[in-house]
Amino acid sequence: MKAGLRRGRIAGVRVTQAHHAPPPQPGSPPARLQTTPIQDQQIRVQGPAGSWWGSGGKAPSLALFFLLAVTPARAQVDIARPTLAAQISTRIVEITTGFTGAEILVFGAAERLLGGEMGDQVLVTVRGPRSPQVVRRRVEFFGIWLNGPSARFLDVPGFYAIAGTRPVWEVLPEEARAEGMLGLDTLPLLARGSQEPAFRAALLELKQEDGRWQEHAVPVEVSGGRLFLTRIPLPATVPTGPYLVEVLLVRDRRVVAQQTLNLEVRRVGTAAWISTVARQAPLLYGVACIVLAALAGWLGSVLFRRS
Description:
Blueprint: E1 5-10, E2 13-18, E3 34-37, E4 42-47, E5 50-55, H1 58-80, E6 84-88, E7 92-95, E8 102-110, E9 121-127, E10 130-141, E11 144-157, E12 160-164, H2 168-171, H3 174-180, E13 191-193, H4 197-209, E14 213-215, E15 221-223, E16 227-234, E17 241-251, E18 254-267, H5 270-280, H6 282-303
Parallel strand pairs: 7-18, 12-14
Antiparallel strand pairs: 1-2, 2-3, 4-5, 6-8, 8-16, 9-12, 9-17, 10-11, 11-13, 15-16, 17-18
Helix pairs in contact: 5-6
């Protein structure tokens, strides 16, 4: 093979053609193409669903047919995918010394009609940071109440709320609810210590009483057939940390679209400073509280002293 020759394969033949060769001299014969048939050459075509192998010139035709058949199908799936757009009124909830609670507005729109018996359904969940919780039973001993048996729950959401256009147990089967932890009865509350069901029931009751766990306390309202909104209340005792707001679109008893939004609850100002001191220097915080209480008592006795 001379230097400057170029090889290639076209439709089952090997082509050898000169390139970068010196220009032909006057009167010389034109350059010729040398072709050599290729027998049983394997050609590999990489497609969306893997690699296809063929022989000779048939493999490109098969691969081209496969690509043309699959591409429209993928486009149809993308076009038919349900659409859901959701947003929240605020991304940060600030807790100050005068914090008495807040409210989160979750709103959005869907492609099809919402609500009713035949329309799509919307579920909204809000989950707060997780932490261990201890539930104790008080026992009476000679007129004195003491701490008795206890159960320590390892992974408990500090805040949990779920709302919907209809109750979650009416729009989703039990398996889907358990998989997505949709509903208070689906929370995996694993406990150490006493395994009595009464401790789990007591935890549910305590969390619901102070408003940190809510199950369909407020509905998801539908406006105009495709717009939805709900207001999730946050109590004064809401824990700080990152929150997840999930909006689910349910159709034919299955979730067809989902959107997740981030929310943060944090302390600011004097409340943040007091909280930081209490965590990082508990001894100093305790002494300061005792001193302030003593000063307040002394000042009250001076102001209201009888002459």
